[in-house]
Every structure is written in structure tokens, then in C-alpha cells.
Write a structure and sequence with these properties.
It is built from 14 helices and seven strands. It has 306 residues and is of the alpha/beta class.
């Protein structure tokens, strides 16, 4: 188990500060407030004249973090919502920065009763908002084998999705997360590193929380909510998320798409954003040593230019 101070270290903090470059009077939206590590550092640079909209799906984590880090002069505003819902509530051109830290927060992973981890015995739940929606156990019970196979294949990239789905369908209900992992492990494809049930847990968690749907809707909204010069920074933790983020940002930064043989542009297309850095930023060895969860983190960032 990680030491307490390592579990809540914000990943890629310096890179986020550089990308969003907050200043006094800025208006920022943080799509996953979590433990508030990014928020504390960003608000410190915004001063008392800024406005920091901290969003989280988990009302209890949201209130606890707001109580602990509440900014000077009411800088921090909290909003209980998914980040796509939060963006939909903001007027176009109203934000100077958007931070989306995707995936599950360390606060949720470390609570056995939330059911995100197979390393601790907990209910088969996996909801980011424990007060709404169906749990992973209810999802498994409701879906047929074909649908479970699709979820495991698309969201977990599990090579033996059909076999795992059959085990999930025939052996449910499971007493706890550890029992689910033990049932899946013998039939799932074993990764080079980690537990054989890792892909299954990822797939179920993504399905329960509609994580990729939320991300797609947020990507459709984000740049429109930024002022010219406003910045969007997104931290992803697996290829399904990062691929979507990269493609959306490439589309926003692309200009003319006419064939090279044409003597002049006929499409009139202009980019709406520019890259802030080439490729994805990753945690260095020192940061990973302090917080192993930073190993898979990828940061991509763009600036709206019109």
C-alpha cells in the first residue's frame, strides 16, 4: 500500500501549471476536483480575484475537499456533476482554463467500500457517484453474455472477452471484488505486468460510469467554452482515453485539408486551437517513484486561438 502522502500527490502538477498558466482573475474549471492537489496549486496562482470551479461526481469527496482547501475570498466554487454536465452549464467563451483529470481519484481507489479495487474486499460497486446509477454488480446481472463481451472487448481490450463474460454471467452474484477477481483470473489474458483481472475491472468501471461517453461529450464542448487564449489540459491514464483526446485536439489544431495539388485553399478551414507542446507529457522517474500511479499518466494541452 502507498504511504498516505503519496496517494494524494497530484500527477504532472508542474506540467499542469505550465499548461494552464493561471494568473490573478482567471476563471478555471477543474473537472475532477478529487483530493484537490491540482486545485490548491492553481488557486495559489490565481489570487483572491480568480474563480475556480471545482467539479466532482462524488458529493462527499467534493464537500470534504472544499472544506479542506477552500480558496481565499470565495475563489473556490463547487459543483456536483460530471465534467461534461459542468461544461454544458458554462456560457460559451467564459473560461480561461479547463483541466480534466480522467479516471478514478486516489481517494476512491483507496476506499475498499467503493469497490474499485480487487486488492481489498469490497462490494462490486465501482460507481464514482455512490448515490446514483447502477452498481457493477447490477450491471453484470442485467446484461447478457454478448453485451458483456462487447464491454470487455471495447473498454478493457480483453483478448479473452467472451470467456470472461461467460464467467461473469454464470457465476454472479459475487460476494465481493476479490471473489470477482479470483473468478476471472484463470480465464482472462494475463498482462505482462499486473493482475489478470485488471482489464475486467477497467471495463466494468468505464461502463458503470459512462466514462468514455462523458469524455466525448466534454471534448465536443470544451473549446467552445474557452475564451481566445484559454487553455485545455487533459490527463488520461489509458489508451482508450488518450486516443480520443489526441484525435479531438488534432482535429481542432488542423487547418487546410485541401489536396496538396490544388494551387489555393478551397476549403477555408482554419485551426481553432494550437498545441502547447508536442506529444504527450509524461511523469519523470522521480515523480513515478514518489507516486507509482503517475506512471501511466499522459498530459495533452491546447490553446484556443479564435
Amino acid at each position: 500500500m502507498l504511504p498516505e502522502d503519496a496517494r494524494h500527490l497530484p500527477v504532472l502538477l508542474e506540467e499542469v501549471l505550465e499548461a494552464l498558466a493561471p494568473c490573478p482573475g482567471s476563471v478555471l474549471l477543474d473537472g475532477t476536483l478529487g483530493a484537490g492537489g491540482h486545485a490548491s496549486a492553481l488557486m495559489a496562482r490565481m489570487g483572491a480575484t480568480g474563480r475556480y470551479i471545482g467539479v466532482d461526481r462524488d458529493a462527499r469527496i467534493l464537500k470534504a475537499t472544499a472544506h479542506r482547501i477552500g480558496g481565499p475570498g470565495g475563489v473556490l466554487e463547487i459543483l456536483h456533476a460530471t465534467f461534461d454536465q459542468a461544461l454544458a452549464q458554462q456560457p460559451p467563451g467564459s473560461l480561461d482554463g479547463i483541466l480534466l483529470d480522467l479516471g478514478v481519484s486516489s481517494m476512491q481507489l483507496d476506499q475498499a467500500q467503493r469497490g474499485f479495487s480487487f486488492q481489498r474486499e469490497g462490494p462490486v460497486d465501482m460507481r464514482m457517484d455512490p448515490d446514483s446509477g447502477e452498481s457493477a454488480a447490477e450491471l453484470i446481472a442485467r446484461l447478457d453474455t454478448d453485451t458483456l463481451t462487447r464491454i470487455l472487448r471495447e473498454y478493457g481490450e480483453e483478448p479473452r472477452a467472451r470467456r470472461v463474460a461467460e464467467v461473469l454471467h454464470t457465476r454472479q452474484p459475487f460476494a465481493d471484488t476479490r471473489a470477482l477477481a479470483e473468478a476471472v483470473a484463470p480465464v482472462a489474458a494475463r498482462p505482462k505486468k499486473g493482475h489478470a483481472a485488471t482489464r475486467t475491472f477497467q471495463a466494468l468501471r468505464i461502463a458503470v460510469n459512462d466514462e468514455l461517453g462523458c469524455l466525448d461529450r466534454a471534448l465536443d464542448l470544451a473549446l467552445d467554452r474557452l475564451r481566445p487564449g484559454g487553455r485545455l489540459a487533459i490527463i488520461s491514464f489509458h489508451s482508450l482515453e488518450d486516443r480520443r483526446v489526441k484525435q479531438a485536439m488534432q482535429e481542432a489544431t488542423r487547418g487546410c485539408i485541401c489536396p496538396p495539388r490544388l494551387p489555393a485553399c478551397g476549403c477555408g478551414r482554419e485551426p481553432v486551437a494550437r498545441w502547447l507542446h508536442t506529444g504527450a507529457r509524461k511523469a519523470d522517474a522521480e515523480a513515478v517513484a514518489l507516486n507509482p500511479r503517475a506512471r501511466s499518466a499522459r498530459l495533452r494541452a491546447v490553446e484556443r486561438i479564435r
